[in-house]
Amino acid sequence: MLRLMVVLVCSFLLAACGGPASDEVVEVPAEAPAEQEVVDEEAEPAESLHAFFERVARERRQSNPQAMAAALAGTEREFDYLGRLQIPSVKNTLAELKMARRHRAEMERFDRAEMSSQDALSWDIMAWQLDQQIDGAEFIWHDFPVNQLMAIHNMLPGFMTAQHPLRNDRDVDFYLERLAQFPQAFQGTVDVVAHRVEQGVIPPRFAVEKTIRDSRAFIAGDPADNPLVTELLAQAERTGTVSEERMVGLEAELAAAVEEHVLPAYALLADYLESLLPDADSNDGVWRLPNGADYYRWVTRGHTTTDLSPEAIHELGLSEVERIEAEMDEILCAEGYCEGTVGERMAALNAEERFLFEDSDAGREAILGAYRDIVAEIEQGLDGWFHDGPTAPVEVRRVPLYREATAFGAYYMRPASDGSRPGIFFANLRSVDEHPRFGLRTLAYHEAIPGHHLQITRMQAMADVPDFRRSISLHAHAEGWALYAERLAWEMGFHEDPYDNLGRLQAELFRAVRLVVDTGMHHLRWSRERGIEYMQSVTGMPATDVEAEIERYLVIPGQANSFKVGMMRMQAMRERAEQALGDDFDIRDFHSVILDNGAMPLQLLDRVVDEWIAEAR
């Protein structure tokens, strides 16, 4: 059922997230650092703190034309980047680590004790991210730039079709210029993967096989039918932003660019991966990598933003599984389902016709319609729980067909900062079985409102803070809030049907199981098959869903731990505030503290909440 991955790609300090880009809300391709030379500016002696923050963010983005264009949207300087792509290289990976060390040393020029509370918080957030990146220097090659979920072969088309602007004829020209750079970008990807192979870091076999399959499939057929052609034409027709003169012959022009540049780029990647298959003989966790145990501890710290050990996380998962199963058993028995394990009973529910949509185009459109209704309903029910709602609209869309097979079951894309694009909740409709009616509400609350969409737009609206704080992504904060939001929607009265509440609890059980299987496979050396068997038996999720989830954890180690850890820490913060403030506790104020300060490590958020409690008293 619920895969629930918000595509959070850090445009600032990507490596500090503790692994390959995964759930950030900007779909900027983050398959590897770029070839373009990173600017190495010298700090001015009299540079102010805010000027320093802005310079750091600018220098970090300098090697990523996509991120630079997004940051400069609406300015003349945007045009310097709109026709360029990020070109991966080993050289730039090393340059970014060097830059992080320089930036961290420069931070010591400022006296934190003399800063305002918000400036000190900005300093602490940046210091934490830089320290995390620097502490992981020995693991700089331990990630998997090529994997079945989030790599150049699927992320770059996703960026081109969903985020490249299409406001006028000039943007069409920039689009064609970017298509022409596909061969360089794919060659760079091959180079950085080959370098990792030399270090003994080879992706799991299933990741290599599925990337080959999807790369070959993407370039099969007539170039005119390629999504890079059809999606742009559909957008142009829908928006009317391209002139009639430019539309004449545009399909043929795009198809020619795909044939000349895109097809050979994908073939290059697929051919290289074919040659790698004899060495890609393992589907095990990262314990198999050089110094894999220490790598997993480091990457887990980056994702959870805590010092919890893999052992502690594993035990936390087991205890939460037991607690949640007991709650589900009580509801199931009350509804007449008392025989078998909770997982078996949920699997049976998932197969009941009354809970499934028709397996057809009409049925899939009905799923999207149901999600839209759920989001619209709860957006009207925020009063009394939040001081402010989202600052941008949100749309519900289907995951593009070419990405369905290996894409996350659902994800969220943040709105453009200039208001030109709404927030988007993407639902993967590859199988109607993955969207039973009792699970719809929880998924919508997670990805949209009061989850990621509310969270991200509140962060984008922050005033009087450095720009990097409006765009950074930390999984424990982002996903912790989204899980907290699922439960909050129940508190708000939006899970009145007991089956909807079962869907909520199944989603929470799924996140508890994640703690068990992620640490199991990467720390306790469970096999891929054992992870699949455990998750399916406990949750009752469809087999296709479970396989996709387990394979996700294997290529993005530690990230799955951030969801439940973040949720539980936020719940603990709220309980602490309720006990301390008693009748003076206002849930709206608490939510403002969590959301309107933006993303930060949980250890810093604990401090911010405690300071708010002290002031409120």
How does this structure look, described?
Residues 1-41 have low confidence and may be disordered. The two termini are 43 Å apart. The longest helix has 27 residues, at 250-276. The chain is globular, with a radius of gyration of 23 Å. Among the domains are: 30-279, no CATH class; 356-491, no CATH class. It has helices spanning 49-61, 65-71, 90-107, 117-135, 152-162, 169-179, 182-198, 205-218, 227-239, 244-247, 250-276, 292-304, 310-334, 342-351, 361-379, 437-447, 452-460, 475-491, 498-522, 528-539, 543-555, 561-581, 587-595, 602-616, and strands at 394-398, 410-413, 423-427. The chain is mostly helical and 617 residues long. A 3-stranded mixed beta sheet has the order 1-3-2, with helices on one face.
- Count of separate DSSP helical elements: 24
Please state the CA-atom Rg, rounded to the nearest Å: 23 Å
**What is the mean predicted local confidence, pLDDT?**
91
- The end-to-end distance, rounded to whole angstroms, is 43 Å
* Sheet of most strands: 3 strands, mixed
- How would you describe the shape? globular
Question: Poorly predicted ranges (pLDDT <50, ≥5 residues)?
Answer: 1-41
Number of strands: 3
Strand order of the largest sheet: 1-3-2
Strand content: under 5%
**Secondary structure: helix percent:** 55-70%
H/E series: HHHHHHHHHHHHHHHEEEHHHHHHHHH
What structural class results from the helix and strand content?
mainly alpha
